[in-house]
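Morning F.,

Quick status update on the modeling queue. The single chain you submitted on Monday has been processed. Sequence for confirmation:
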Amino acid sequence: GLARDEFLPFFQPQVTFSNGQVVGVEALARWRRSDGSIVRPTQFVGVVEREKQIDRFTDRILEKACAWKARWERNGISLKISVNVSMLNLADVSAADRFQHIVRSHGVDPREVVLEITESSVMGEAAHALHVLARLRLKGFGLSVDDFGTGYSSLSQLSQIPFTDLKIDQS
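Structure tokens below.
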């Protein structure tokens, strides 16, 4: 799928609770196979990580999401974009520079991009990724904890990490 560039973002709106105004979108990775079928991330992300292709995969989804954001901006639609990243992406200190290059190459300001990391993964690996998370914040990226409430972390633990957003689990 990666070799054929079959992974793409599907966008889910993010709305302001008080008035329902759409203020952003979350890029949800999907695999559109050559037969037209759509594969959800629960069926492929583990394989992509295990095969050590997660950086290539995440970079491509970020590139495509930024291309859509730039297209919307040209048409007068200003929305923040959120993209999920794996903690494995944050194991390499060059990730912050790589993400910044991808975003800027599409004319997008990093302050308009939020990178989402699930609570369970970030709390298990926070110490290792803290340097990269801090570099991402210094470059202007927003950082979001996704699915808060599914793990065992507390707000005091999360306050030690430079997150800008908190997404509470639907349950």
